[in-house]
């Protein structure tokens, strides 16, 4: 079922990344599509957002602001088992993110000369929650809990208008907002919503940082506004890579490849293995399991698209080179001694170790964050964590005596850079120059 790329004859490290499975619509192409959408929101504000909702979501909301009553009503009518599941996710994700909070530290560099490392929460943030092909109350939890643990004061959240619900975001999203005490919520989706957060529109004031997952258009819009605001990462269309050897269970591997293909016809499912027998068995399992899935057409398109496939390698070492070059959003390790193998992975949004840690555990309840970098950006960016909502600032304070101690070497250094006024700023404070 999956196409095959046979690298058992070897490969050169330089050419590797370019030879791996790749989506037909990449982020550079999506940038062209979203540039006018973001510009339109910057120029025309709410009217542009309403026009875009009508065009892409098939409904024109009365307003982009979601009234508080819609949130409480949604929670009141939500199935109690789902309320319990969302609350359990909130609890687990909170525990998983509290350990990320850095401590303020202070060090005396010379007697009386101190550097203090402070962490300041972002003033105002905008959280994006997808809602096109599927709806994601779990992304409300991942975004909001992380921002709250970091201590952000002002939190706004947006999700696409839903035709079925009169132009409001999906009720499970509104109910999750109510459970988390998020009360500034907008009905706006896609690139326009990212423009709204970056530049402001109607009652939504501009934010300092935008976080959250979305499709390729959302990821491209985040890249576009970076610089006007901060972003977490380009958390775009879902990807799963699985590094597996002959010891792997093909039923588990196929189920996990299929689980992420369910998100989007453009989702990527990639198997990397040194076992042809396993690759064959996974193909048989995929064919059988894909028939039973609810979203069969979407899954088939994802699994057979150019972004998905099996990569055959000669050894586990080669497999590690492949997964490091690919830098998947999610990487599962199904090998002997999986923990040791996982330690050799440098590039992945999140790593899931062993046969009993499937990606869907992390999607909802494992306590980790599911907002993760895609498109190979895990080479340089991280999954959503409290640091996306914190700034680090060094606070410096020297006494007269401490400054005296560094004056002579600093003057020497500044003169070497031909910046003598720098040295002068210390010399005017120095006892020997008064
Ligand atoms: N990387 C992560 O952390 C992560 C987490 C969860 C979900 N995801 C991904 O998020 C995505 C959710 O996608 P979705 O579509 O369900 O919801 P979404 O909210 O991301 O996208 C819907 C919006 O896309 C815009 N859009 C649709 N077609 C467009 C077009 N042709 N041109 C410009 N804009 C267009 C519209 O504004 C629409 O409101 C999936 O791709 C899923 O795989 C990623
Ligand atoms: N796998 C998604 C990240 O790519 C997150 C998610 C949310 N709900 C289900 N899955
Ligand atoms: Zn998922």
UniProtKB/TrEMBL annotation:
The answer to whether keyword Flavoprotein applies is: no
MF GO annotations: histidinol dehydrogenase activity; NAD binding; zinc ion binding
Q: Which species is this UniProt entry from?
A: Flaviflexus salsibiostraticola
**Cofactor descriptive note:** Binds 1 zinc ion per subunit.
Q: Binding of substrate: at which residues?
A: 238, 260, 263, 330, 363, 417, 422
The gene name reads: hisD
What does UniProt list as this organism's lineage? Bacteria, Bacillati, Actinomycetota, Actinomycetes, Actinomycetales
What InterPro entries does this protein map onto? Answer: Ald_DH/histidinol_DH, Histidinol_DH_CS, Histidinol_DH_monofunct, Hstdl_DH
Cofactor(s) needed, names only, are: Zn(2+)
Q: In which pathway does it act?
A: Amino-acid biosynthesis; L-histidine biosynthesis; L-histidine from 5-phospho-alpha-D-ribose 1-diphosphate: step 9/9
Name of the protein in question? Histidinol dehydrogenase
UniProt keywords, alphabetically = Amino-acid biosynthesis, Histidine biosynthesis, Metal-binding, NAD, Oxidoreductase, Zinc
Q: Where, in this chain's numbering, is Zn(2+) bound?
A: 260, 263, 363, 422
What is a single Pfam family found in this protein's UniProt entry? Histidinol_dh
Protein origin, superkingdom: Bacteria
Q: Which residues form the active site?
A: 329-330
Endpoints of the signal sequence: none
What CDD domains has UniProt attached to this entry? Histidinol_dh (cd06572)
Reaction catalysis annotation: L-histidinol + 2 NAD(+) + H2O = L-histidine + 2 NADH + 3 H(+)
């Amino acid at each position: 079922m999956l196409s095959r790329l046979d690298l058992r004859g070897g490969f050169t490290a330089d050419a590797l990344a370019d030879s791996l499975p790749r989506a037909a619509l990449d982020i550079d192409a999506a940038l062209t599509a979203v540039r006018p959408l973001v510009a339109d929101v910057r120029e025309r504000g709410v009217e542009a957002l309403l026009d875009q909702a009508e065009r892409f979501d098939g409904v024109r909301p009365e307003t982009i602001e979601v009234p508080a009553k819609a949130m409480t009503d949604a929670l009141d009518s939500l199935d109690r088992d789902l309320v319990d599941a969302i609350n359990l996710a909130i609890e687990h994700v909170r525990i998983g993110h509290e350990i990320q909070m850095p401590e303020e530290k202070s060090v005396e560099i010379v007697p009386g000369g101190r550097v203090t490392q402070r962490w300041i929460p972002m003033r105002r943030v905008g959280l994006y929650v997808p809602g096109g092909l599927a709806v994601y109350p779990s992304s409300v939890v991942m975004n909001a809990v992380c921002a709250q643990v970091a201590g952000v004061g002002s939190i706004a959240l947006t999700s696409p208008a839903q035709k079925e619900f009169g132009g409001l975001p999906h009720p499970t999203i509104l109910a999750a907002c109510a459970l988390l005490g998020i009360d500034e919520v907008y009905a706006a989706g896609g690139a326009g919503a990212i423009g709204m957060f970056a530049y402001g529109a109607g009652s939504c004031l501009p934010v300092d940082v935008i976080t959250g997952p979305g499709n390729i258009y959302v990821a491209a819009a985040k890249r576009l506004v970076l610089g006007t605001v901060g972003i977490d990462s380009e958390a775009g269309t879902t990807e799963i890579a699985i590094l597996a050897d002959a010891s792997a269970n093909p039923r588990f591997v196929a189920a996990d490849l299929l689980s992420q293909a369910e998100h989007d016809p453009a989702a990527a499912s990639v198997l990397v293995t040194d076992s042809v027998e396993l690759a064959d068995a996974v193909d048989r399992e995929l064919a059988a399991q894909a028939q039973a899935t609810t979203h069969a057409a979407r899954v088939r398109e994802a699994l057979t698209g150019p972004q998905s496939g099996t990569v055959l390698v000669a050894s586990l070492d080669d497999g590690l080179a492949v997964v490091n070059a690919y830098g998947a959003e999610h990487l599962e390790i199904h090998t002997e001694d999986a923990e040791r193998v996982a330690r050799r992975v440098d590039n992945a949004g999140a790593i899931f170790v062993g046969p009993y840690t499937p990606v869907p555990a992390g999607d909802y309840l494992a306590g980790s964050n599911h907002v993760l970098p895609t498109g190979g950006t895990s080479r340089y960016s991280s999954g959503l964590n409290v640091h996306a909502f914190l700034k680090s600032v060094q606070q410096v304070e020297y006494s007269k005596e401490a400054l005296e101690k560094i004056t002579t070497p600093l003057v020497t250094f500044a003169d070497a850079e031909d910046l003598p006024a720098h040295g002068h700023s210390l010399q005017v404070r120095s006892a020997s120059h008064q």
